[in-house]
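Incident log, structure service

09:12 report received: a user says their structure output differs between two submissions of the same chain.
09:20 pulled the input from the user's history:
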Amino acid sequence: MARTLLSGGRVFDARSGDIRDADVVIEEGRVVDVGPGLDGDRAVDVRGRTLLPGLFDCHTHVAFSHVDMMRSVQSPFSLRFYEAEANLGRTLDIGITTVRDAGGADLGMKVAVERGLIRGPRMQISIGMISQTGGHGDEWMPFGEPVRMFGVPYPGSPSTIVDGPDEMRRKVRELIRNGADVIKVATSGGVMSPRDDPRHPHFLPDELEAMVKTAAAQGVWVMAHAQGAEGIKNGVRAGSRSVDHGIFMDDEAIELMLERGAWFVPTLIAAQGVIEAAEAGAAIPEVALRKAREVVEIHRESFRKAVAAGVKIAMGTDSGVTPHGENLRELVLMEEGGQTPPQVLQSSTISAAELMGLQDELGSLEPGKRADVVVVEGDPFDFKTLSERIESVYKDGLEVLDRTGTA
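09:34 re-ran on a clean worker, output below:
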């Protein structure tokens, strides 16, 4: 097979955070060499460009496109599948070649990408978020019935409301049977749900322990939607691999995460996205909008504390709450929260790969790894304009985006 040479550019070393002059050679979907003065059968001139590893988003919802309740309930059921195709394409076009979907994507969507039927990043999927009755994820409304803003259960995507250890075990097994690569659980309330408080913990320790042990028996990790401090700590104590959101993180939670090696996926843009959607006219319950306004700065301060303490961080956005294709806005907030620009890119590449168990295949441009490459014009550390300056994207060695007009 022909060797493709990306020549004359600079390469971001995800392990050290340095940028150095180097060529990259790709063959059979893999990086086979990185360094100066290389050769290949087909040369692509990337002088003046920086080559990044394929980026990650560790908390997205590719099957959801907005948070407008009335728009959701008036949309045909199957529309979400076509919207997912568009959302996946938008995500790929900004250099994100791997995602961890936090609810909504099913096995069919993942397989469609794998088979090349639709364009998109490779996916790990959770299918749905396990929630307690009356918790974040229970879409029951005060008039007495659920309003299923995020879709009705269907084959391959079951209801995920459970109570008690036995129901928890059964639901974990059902989700894994349906193709879940990771189990997602709400260990606290949330912003968008109208009948709970994000500071309150959800599920009891025996329920969470049953969930983690059942998942671990089948080699599956757990990600915790955890906003309140007690919910964060309960999830980490039970063995959750990641804390997602972490809005009300306190010092004890940070110490526990450091002790247990838990990851933090901050999704800093999410609450701001709810506010922006409401300002644009989306039908969002007033209680949810109030909670979003209350938590924005609290969330950012928790992130600052986690960064300063050395908590392991992986990039995630909660896209679907915010528009797909705007994921890289998160990088700006991560830098403002105390990460250096190299650390931001590391959280979006090698660290995210480690969180997802993919560090041997992805996350850095090294010989033997999958050839996911993002070609960037200009300063790769200028995150405010980064998405506008992505010229090419390679996934498994194939060019899936070319904005240069030379392909």
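09:41 both user submissions now match this output. Likely a transient worker issue. Closing.
09:42 reviewer note: The longest strand covers residues 30-35. The mean pLDDT is 95.
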